[in-house]
Design a protein that fits this description.
The protein has 41 helices and no strands. By secondary structure, it is mostly helical. Belongs to the importin beta family. It comes from Escallonia rubra. One of its GO terms (molecular function) is small GTPase binding.
Length: about 725
């Protein structure tokens, strides 16, 4: 009794005291109490106590449910029967509520059934026991229905600390009782106000995937009740759950295949197809539309193999209808289907049963032709969907990031089915359409054009590098687009994505000057376009390096302006590394005699500030923040990594060694600076190899001496690179 009173007092403090520290202490005590053996009896007593308030009832029911789930083995074996009877009494006591308490008691009984074998439960197991209780207490049927609903769900609840073999046996016990359970539910259908609860329980039992013959289900009253509810004015959520589970049921691995399940499939599909018109019904509640869309998506995912044989093209049209819905949450339900359909249409494994290659190719082409129009429509729908929202600028940084990350892979599925060039042509028409609606109006909406370009960029890997019809027209359009930040960012990313095309296409060279101008504009705009432009600049120099060998002076001007930080460029230190790599790749394409001089010029913007810091004396060098030093060393590291001229890099490291040694000597304690410096030396060693001559010995001697004092892990790593 004393402990019961303490629990009540602690709950009163937790919910009603004004001092947070006191409430925290009460919460801590209650959590410790829940872990004790006494909690079993105390919570049971308080639940049976008519004077317990709602807060006490909720706490005690949750505690008892948790104890049964996780710590049932604490109890002696003879405690099971009194616990079962007590929980049964509580379920009857709280049949009118509170609902939270009744649900916790139901979960506790279900968890008890997971732990206790049917033969020990008595009465032929829990389902038979439930049937007998419902027959004896008609007024308690709603409470027992809730228990019947949660029972199969607990098979997959791994909070219940049951041993694996016991969990498997429990699943078998429930599967063997499925007929009894569906019999109870069928009998309850006669109580009209319980219909929704009955269907919810039926959906729960269907998740067990117990093999009820398709012909039995096709004529079952529960199935017909769910199907007829689809046509009611107010869509039943429970009916949708039942139909959804039936769809998954017919496609389950242990279902025997579509031919066995066809009686049920032929019953379900026409009924769901009748709902198609409601997808566009503006008077429909959004949740209802979402539920209908879910059924179509379930059919698509489950029957994709049937659909791929062109027998169910009407379902594809319905799924296009779902994909066209303005709400992303609804439209995206179909994306998995389009991906899986693409795999079946493209993969050779789908056709191996046909035997010879000619038959395989003919059948694949036939199927691709059937679905071509659907994927073409999908491209148009997705190009509209990736459009920036009107309120984009008002979104939080986190929401903006989420928006950028949820642009769609479904475009790639379409490109694989249609081919890159066909997809590109559709998207180019979308781009022209967007630009045409603008005319010469400077203040027109930039978002449709950006969306089309985003899609064009997304399929770049699937467009031939020698495509000569559409890409030249797109490249000619880019310089004339407005310099709006998000649009310019996507223009820069698109340029970078098609760098291989710029190198390989016959007209690619003629576009390079205008492309570089676009990238310079991007670097001068703001942080996001600048980052995109720097990344694109790197891609272009990587793929078109040979073409830039005669234009080094112009590239160096851009590079020096960016590195100095004094111009209009908005590049972060991290993004500036893309420019370092870009110029390094171009220098790699130069003859050896020209490469040395170019490498000197490339290193200069990084070397000069380091030399200035060293010239200010050892105190200044020792006190500088690491970032002010590593930003320059990281640039040198990238130069040594990407300039593939071993002798030129060996000469450069030999000239720079006095600077590196001064930093090693005075900042060996600073892990961040040492890691950056060792990385630069590592790349110099890897690129130059034996051309490094005496410098390599000096590096090894330096880091071996420093390791004895400072034990920096990066010294060991650099030593291993040198020995290699």
């Amino acid at each position: 009794m004393e402990l019961q009173n303490t629990v009540k007092q602690a709950l009163n403090v937790l919910y009603h005291h004004t001092d947070d520290a006191v409430r925290l202490e009460a919460d801590r005590w209650l959590q410790e109490f829940q872990g004790t053996l006494d909690a079993w009896q105390v919570c049971d007593n308080l639940l049976h106590d008519a004077s317990s308030n709602p807060e006490t009832l909720i706490f005690c029911s949750q505690t008892l449910r948790s104890k049964v789930q996780r710590y049932f083995e604490e109890l002696p074996s003879e405690a099971f029967r009194p616990l079962r009877d007590s929980l049964n009494t509580l379920l009857k006591t709280f049949h009118m509520g509170p609902p939270k308490v009744r649900t916790q008691i139901s979960l506790a009984i279900a968890a008890l059934a997971v732990h206790v074998p049917a033969e020990d439960w008595g009465d032929g197991g829990i389902v038979n026991w439930l049937r007998d209780e419902m027959n004896s207490h008609h007024e308690l049927i709603p409470s027992f229905l809730e228990l019947l609903t949660v029972l199969p769900e607990e098979v997959f609840n791994y909070k219940i600390a049951a041993r694996p073999n016991r969990r498997q046996k429990f699943e078998k016990e429930l599967s063997s009782a499925t007929e009894v359970a569906t019999g109870i539910l069928t009998a309850c259908l006669s109580i009209n106000e319980l219909k929704e609860q009955v269907l919810e329980a039926f959906a729960s039992w269907l998740r067990l995937r117990h093999r009820i013959p398709a012909s039995t289900l096709a004529s079952h009253p529960l199935v017909h009740t769910a199907l007829s509810s689809l046509n009611s004015d107010v869509l039943s959520e429970a009916s949708v759950n039942v139909i959804s589970e039936l769809i998954h049921y017919t496609a389950a691995r242990n279902s025997g295949g579509f031919s066995v399940q066809m009686p049920l499939i032929q019953l379900i599909v026409p009924q769901v197809m009748n709902l198609k018109a409601q997808l566009r019904d503006s008077s429909k509640d959004e949740e209802d539309v979402k539920a209908i869309a879910r059924l179509f998506a379930d059919m698509g995912d489950s029957y994709v193999e049937l659909i791929a044989t062109d027998e169910s093209i009407l379902i594809v049209h319905a799924l296009l209808e779902v994909a066209s819905h303005p709400e992303y949450d609804i439209a995206s339900m179909t994306f998995n289907f389009w991906h899986n359909l693409q795999i079946i249409l493209i993969e050779r494994d789908s056709y191996v049963s046909l035997g010879n290659e000619a038959a395989i190719e003919a059948e694949r082409n036939r199927r691709l032709q059937i679905f071509r129009a659907s994927y073409e429509s999908l491209v148009s729908l997705v190009s509209f969907r990736v459009q920036y929202p009107q309120d984009y600028s008002g979104l939080t940084k986190e929401d903006q990031k989420d928006f950028k990350q949820t642009r769609y892979d479904v475009l790639i599925d379409a490109a694989l089915v249609l081919g890159g060039e066909v997809t590109l042509k559709i998207l180019y028409m979308k781009l022209l359409e967007a630009l045409g609606s603008c005319g010469n109006n400077e203040s027109c909406d930039w978002r449709p054009a950006e969306a089309a370009l985003y899609c064009i960029r997304a399929i770049s890997d699937y467009v031939s590098s020698t495509e000569a019809e559409v890409m030249p027209q797109i490249m000619a359009l880019l310089p004339n687009l407005p310099h709006q930040p998000q649009l310019l960012q996507t223009v820069c990313l698109t340029v970078g994505a098609y760098s291989k095309w710029l190198d390989a296409a016959s007209s690619g060279l003629s576009f390079l000057p205008s492309v570089i101008d676009i990238l310079v504009s991007g670097m001068s705009m703001s942080e996001d376009p600048a980052a995109a432009a720097a990344s694109a600049f790197r891609n272009i120099c990587d793929d078109c390096g040979k073409k830039f060998c005669g234009s080094l002076d112009g590239l160096f001007q851009i590079y020096q302006r960016a590195m100095s930080g004094e111009g209009v460029f908005k590049l972060s230190a991290e993004d500036s590394l893309n420019l370092v790599e870009a110029l390094s790749m171009v220098i790699t394409e130069l003859p050896s005699d020209q490469a040395k001089k170019a490498l000197e010029a490339l290193c200069l913007p990084a070397v000069t500030p380091l030399q200035e810091i060293i010239n200010q004396g050892p105190i200044t060098l020792g006190q500088k923040p690491a970032r002010e030093i590593t930003v320059h060393i990281d640039r040198l590291a990238n130069i040594f990594r990407y300039v593939n001229h071993p002798e030129a890099v060996a000469d450069a490291i030999q000239r720079l060694w006095p600077i590196f040694k001064a930093i090693f000597d005075l900042r060996a304690w600073d892990m961040r600076t040492m890691e950056s410096l060792c990385r630069a030396c590592k790349h110099a060693v890897r690129t130059s190899k034996r051309f490094m001559g005496i410098t390599i010995g000096a590096i090894l001697e330096e880091i071996q001496g420093l390791y004895k004092q400072h034990h920096q892990p990066c010294f060991l790593y650099l030593s291993s690179e040198v020995i290699k």
